[in-house]
Sequence to fold (153 residues):
Amino acid sequence: MSAIFHIRMAVPGDLDAIMALLQVNQPVFGRLLRDHVAGELDPSPGMKRKYWFVAEQAGQVVGTIYCYHGLRDISYPNYLCVDASAKGSGIGAHLLEAVESQARDMGQKSVQFQCPEGNSANALYARLGYTNTGRELASRNYLINWERTFRRT
Fold:
């Protein structure tokens, strides 16, 4: 696959590709999440705090990320997924960068998210300069807490 990719806001036509990525990378969600994702791809004005981004490469959606921009000046990215054929190409970092850029534009003060302990994505977050703020037990597994605070200008 070509190394050139483009990050953009997701549109309703991306639903099947997003669901395919979610089901491979986070199979626990399955079909239960489909209606939820479809609703958040709705471009209506009421959805202005919830966004999906996709990475396109050679006309194919090869990555996705969701972000909820909270009311307390904190944005919460989630569901970062990159197709196996595109891993290591920088797509995950660029998807996070798109979320951060939007969060800054909305006046948010930070992004915060969690990742299961032992997940290889934790190395990416550390390399990108996110702060590990600890871990917490969720069910039977630990989650690593990550944060980046933006400087006010």
Remarks:
- The helical segments are 15-25, 34-40, 91-105, 121-127.
- The chain has a mean pLDDT of 90.
- The CA atoms of residues 81 and 128 lie 16 Å apart.
- Strands lie at 6-9, 50-57, 60-69, 74-82, 110-116, 131-138, 141-149.
